[in-house]
């Protein structure tokens, strides 16, 4: 009786090596340099154009002063956040439930496969506990945080008083999701990262670091402003009381 051989799963560069990725085709994998260019060139262009455009705006009236450099940078930051959350992470939500991210020929799927070299949880099949966490985080990011980034941009360029609240909410959501993302990866032994320092430090830690640094800076800045505003109001109230005596 002939031995029945179990088909060998196609080889892939992801960790752990036992991860099963049916229909994975190595020819769909982008060259690393090309993948990084496809990732960062559009974001750099969007950041630059937004910064230039917001420099021409005057709110609330045409005679109002133009936005400061820091306001323009923040508007640009939340603009690229909106684009990433809605389009890039939205593509993950579309592919992941059907377990097609590893085999799709679309450009966004190819970019996800490049990042997945640092965290293959994005390629896991639906139902896997680690996949469920990642998918839940991305659902919140795409449908809640992404649209709120628009509120941040509008609040900044129109100098609305509520912009501080919107920025703190978005920044806090970013800090919480990044903290949970790092923590779960660490608790699981960082077994999802391919060998190579560029993936661990360049992709996993480096690509997420700006969301930690900028979000923490925004929250700190707004808290300081809130504290300063409260101090001014107390001083004004005390001055008014003294004057009335």
Describe the protein:
There is one protein chain. The protein has 245 residues and is mostly helical. Helix content is 65%, strand content 0%. It has 7 helices and no strands. The model has no long low-confidence stretch (mean pLDDT 88).
Mean pLDDT: 88
Oligomer: single chain
**Class based on secondary structure composition and strand pairing:** mainly alpha
Give the distance, in angstroms, between the N- and C-terminal Cα atoms. 107 Å
Count every beta strand, where a strand is a DSSP E run of 2 or more residues: 0
Number of distinct helices? 7
Uncertain stretches of 5 or more adjacent residues: none
Strand content: under 5%
| N to C succession of SSEs | HHHHHHH
Radius of gyration (CA) equals 23 Å
Q: Indicate the percent of residues in helices.
A: 55-70%
Largest sheet: none
What form results from the Cα inertia axes?
A: elongated
Any key phrases for this structure?
245 residues; mainly alpha; elongated
What's the quick description here?
This protein has 7 helices and no strands. It is an all-alpha fold and 245 residues long.
Draw up the topology in text.
Layout: H1 32-54, H2 69-95, H3 107-115, H4 129-157, H5 163-187, H6 197-206, H7 209-244
Helix pairs in contact: 1-2, 2-4, 4-5, 5-7
